Fold these 3 entries.
Entry 1:
Amino acid sequence: MLNKLLFRNQDKKQLVIAIIGAFMGITFLITSIHYIIKVNEFGKGSDILGPNTIIVQKKVTNASSLNLTKTDFSLNELSKMRKEPFITEIQPVISNNFDISFETNDPHVPYFRTDVFIQTVDQKFLDVKTDQWHWKKGDEFVPMIMPREFLVMLNTFMSASGIPQISDDLVKQVKFKFKLWNDSTVERVNVRIIGFTNEVSSILVPASFMKYGNDTFSDGTSQKITQIMISGKESEFGLVEDLLNKKGLESKNAQMMIGRLKSVVETLFIVVLGISIIAVLAAGLVLIQYLQLLMSRNEYEVRTLLRLGYSPAELIKKFFLYFVKIFGLVTLLGLSTFLILKYFLDEMFASGGLYIDTGMTLMSIVSILIAYLIFTVASYRTAKKEIFKQF
Amino acid sequence: MKTQNQNKLIQIKMEIILNTIMPSPLASIQHGADSIWGNFIELKKGRHILLNASSGKGKSTFTTTIIGLRKDYSGSITFDGKNINTFTPTDWCSIRQTKISVIYQDLQLFPDLSVEENLLLKNRLTNECSEKEIREMLEKVEIENKWTQKCGLLSMGQQQRVAIVRGLLQPFEWLIMDEPFSHLDTENAKRAIEMINKRCKDLNAGFVLTTLGDSHGCQYDQELKL
């Protein structure tokens, strides 16, 4: 009866417009936040390098071939690049300065040996567990990360030798050895492959092993920095790319493409997020304004009910709950639409080569809860203010 | 219908004191020595009071001031020794539900709601009467057949009777009536007065009846002027 009295004679058209606005705002808000997070996460865990990280070297030109320009990095160059605001980290890639070869050491696998080039990068660039990535003299084996191309090459060799090819998991069980030597000393150490990378073309080993090799087997010549690792800020990968072009640096195309793609998609979703926040706020304001309008239309009713003995709290609750239910319904509709939209968007991203994780993101749920909370508080305060005006 | 013994809320009778009250809009008017404005007036518990005054002297101002709707006055009003200016919205809510019932001059009905809805909206606050009792009250003032009709479609006299019945659908210690019979014929006024007297007797409550001069045959034990 109280509902009939207070919520009759509404301007339904205005209410419907406000509901549609809020629904669109909420849907875009949750969608944009979800995909900003997902695009950010894209690439994480898929390889041993952290997200937004690339390995670069100077382009080899005719001039550098003739020794007219250098292909190594000076410390001054690194320090200048570190000052760029869009770069979060730069570290040199350290290479071996001694002779090393890699060979099989397993009775089940035919003998295979090749001279190799090993590198080490700072631990913070790698997505590998710390407890696996260490070595000290006397340890049972040296952990190593192998370029995937190397496995392909190994399998080609196996196939040519009439031996079945081996998978990632199986190759991790195969025993290998490193042979390190100089003019006077030869040492063999056991090796175990703990992972693969598509992003680095050389074998990666822990820094402590590299230091041991360089200290023990190096001929004493100074080591040049020919490759560096760069981590760029999220969604500013375009600036990193510009810097690389300006400085004549190059990286693997795939790495650059992913960085570029992530930047573009993320920027797009940030724009959508901005529009969504404005839409949610505008729709919220329209709904609050509608609440004020409804209450001003019911001034007589509210005043009379208060005179009859109705408590302000009960009347505040009536108006407040009515709008909280409307916004709750809008939120649920927005969430449902997002789930449907998400199905199609995930498919669309996948068909575009962006295989993002299809799980829900906590932040997107939190964002609509925050929007709901803000609206709830605003509704309550408006209802309270308008009721007490009549008291 | 609950009586005094059934309703513990009305066990304590409420005494109202008006201490040199002067509403701002009436401050420029000369008031007599027996006027409630500017003098010390005690509304003793359970008394039947007639407040007789010509138009514009502040009868409705008295009603709205005593129920806490107006605050534009000097002096003080106390209920059982408590200044009404100190009451919170919750206190007023409780007073309007169980201590003071008002029949407003402008009736304060909801014209788009039926007689039934208007009355049940009031009754649901305290569940003082059953639907049967409410319909019996309407029957006494001869508008029982208007039960489902919208109040806005009733004549002023019929609306006034609905407002009177609504004023009785709560426990009270004081019934404040602001010209409640102004649109009633003698016979209907008589029936309404009988019903009011019975209800006040049942609740051992007092009333204040404001009028333009005619008491409509209502028995009272004190007359106040404005």
Note: Chain A has two domains: 2-43+260-390, 94-224.
Entry 2:
Amino acid sequence: MSLVSLGQSVQDIAVFTAVRESRLVYPILLSTHLACIATFGGLILITNLRLLGWTLTDIPTADLIRALRPWKQFGLVVMLTCGVLLGASKASEYLPNPFFQLKMALLVALALHGVYFRRTVYRAAVVAERKARAAAVVSLILWSGVVSMGRWIAYYDPPTAATNLPTANSVRLPTTTCATVAAIQAAALGGPTKIISSTATPSDTCTSTAAIADLAARLWIALVC
Amino acid sequence: MYDTSTNFLNVHEWAYGLTEIVHILSLAVGIGLIALVDLRLLGVAIGRASAERLWKATAVVSLMGLIVAVTTGLMIFSTDPIRYFHHPTMRFKLVLVVMALAFNYTVHGRVVRSDSPRLAASAVAVLSPVMWVTVVFSGLFYAFT
């Protein structure tokens, strides 16, 4: 079963169809999702700043984490509820979207980081300083990634031609994406000047992981050239 | 005459999206840290820290977040100023942002510093996040109206 048809059967469930077709519910959910980032994001940020030892050093880290935990949990529940409703209501568009896939992967990584640092940092009576710094760095990177990928989802142009329908492990990406991937390969061989002059072979089919390479390549091109 | 087609954000494919991401991340920094102070004002104990202590500890980072959010916001505005300026939802948002900023650095700052009455502190702690969340809502509803 392809990701598109799987998504189609998810979004055909009555509640998700209702969300998608409502004129008001969709933007309200989206706004609430974003408002959660704006308000509860601060709780995550202050926890990370304390874990790094940059602020409020007179308050024990464990006390701060314990005080904020129920509020973070509340925020997460609201954010996830809105997120699931939004995502599932357009599942056939989102599941094959490489930025959506990346966002989900980052969320899984966030959960794993929570489990990994649970004993030494998040539920520790006395927090180990070095572990705390590591946890904060990982958390900040992953959360910024989640927010960024969330925004990029909207910028993905799905393939239009029906000749090569997407499957689970082969998703067609816009030609520019494949051109950029080809440009990295050219760059690896010939250096930055080659990128601009290289006429990439416009191959139409790319794996979905090419989107990650695409993002890295474009950033790299912007920095180097 | 200002020509939007020469605007950096309209010329470079990824510039607009990246600016939006910075806008969202920075508003989370700015608004989120204000929300933390509001939580304390509402009586949530955070270690032994007073609201004033939290306000001072977060003031610089929060201000930086707000400055970046306003700057990136103006950058996005510059991509199509006439459309944004005449759109009622965007006008509402802009007025509200100015009000929320003024509120934050006058009333909010004063309530945090002094031993203000419990009721006043609570009222401010409710009004402040309501204003900021409305700013976020109006920013998003602009795209849907």
Note: Confidence is low (pLDDT under 50) at residues 165-173, 189-207 of chain A.
Entry 3:
Amino acid sequence: MNDATVPQLATAVRRGDRRALARALTIIDRGGVQVRRLRQALAGYGVGSLVGITGAPGAGKSSLTTVITQELRRRGMQVGIIAVDPSSPLSGGSLLGDRIRMYDLAGDSGVFIRSMANRGQYGGLAASTLDAAMLMRAAGFGMVLLETVGAGQSDVAVVDVADTVLLVESPGMGDEVQSIKAGLLEVADVIVVSKSDRPDSSATLQQLRALMRMQMGSDDVWSVPVLPVSAIQQTGVAELVDALLAHAEWLQVHPPTWRQQRRYLLALQRAIDVQLREALQQLPGWSVALAQLGQYDSDLMARQLLEEFVANGFTKE
Amino acid sequence: MSEAPIRVLVAKPGLDGHDRGAKVIARALRDAGMDVIYTGIGQTPHMIVEAALQEDVDVVGLSILSGAHMTLLPKVATQLREAGLGHCVIIAGGIIPAEDSTILTSQHGIDAIYGPGTNTDDIVAFIRTTVAARRAAS
């Protein structure tokens, strides 16, 4: 596809054309200069909130995503889903299997599911998920659910992307000290104890509620609800969706300044990283560096490329 | 720009629950560096086409051991074309008699059919060649 078609594609995305959305998502996944054109063409369009769903592997994220979506559909909302799974570190390929557990959503034209490989990114998130969510919002989805890889305690990268962080804890996953450790519990906006049909879930629920009460502050602080949900028995789902929508409303009144600032900073850092790397790869010295991989210190090689760039400036674009 | 990874949808149309073959293929394609979207069993043609559209795949791989291949495979191929996804390479696997294979590939738009005992390297090579040709043509 040539560059001239990107604005046309963006227009079709805004119209809600599903095929155009799918193709635009592929551009995002692929990266490169067209991503920036797409971003520029769609900046400022779309509303709706982005809910990041995280939790340990097997905690029930996919099943929960399905029942949340069904409840949102009952309330007349259109839902976009981005399901991230890990890439193989060996082949670079991936096996994206979240659709298996989203069987009940298949064929619903008010739902759009896209699977993405994380391309080995830290924190279990594909670098491009933020752009993917932007596309879905521009296409008119009232809520976008982002299901992360579930890297466990280190999956905090979701906070840099999502408006609302939904943490899924399954019963009996560890003692109280696990919970007091810094990490996901600190950034969660809504906590779900999944599989609440299981007998050991009430203990986990009580522990987490006691813990979150300790962290409660003033009126300006969102008080994090801890909710029991059983995806199998379909209980607690309406209350969970109420909480997600309430948090989205709360954000309208209380914009999270530290999170927003951090997000702007990270976006700038990512843009610098991408653009600088692309500029350096245009230099004659880049192919020389590639041929000498492993022979010299990588810090030294990077330094030389930067010096070459400063001496020569941009070669194109 | 780097060459985009090949995206493959692996689905089991119809009602048989024998998914060992589909999983072996899915894993082999992942190991060949492709992004494989696995949908599992019990898929209707409509569900398969919707998934192929949303995931913007290059290849649709269908595994079928129920005997309903002469009904289901042409349906999937037709509906893919109707949805504007005529560029997708369609590959089928399972227990499909040779005479049916000939009809499916010559008359119903199935690009290749692989039976038990196929070397997965052959499937990988076919997908790479065919997808490269289709991408160059588009």
Note: Residues 46-254 of chain A form a domain with the Rossmann fold fold (CATH 3.40.50.300).
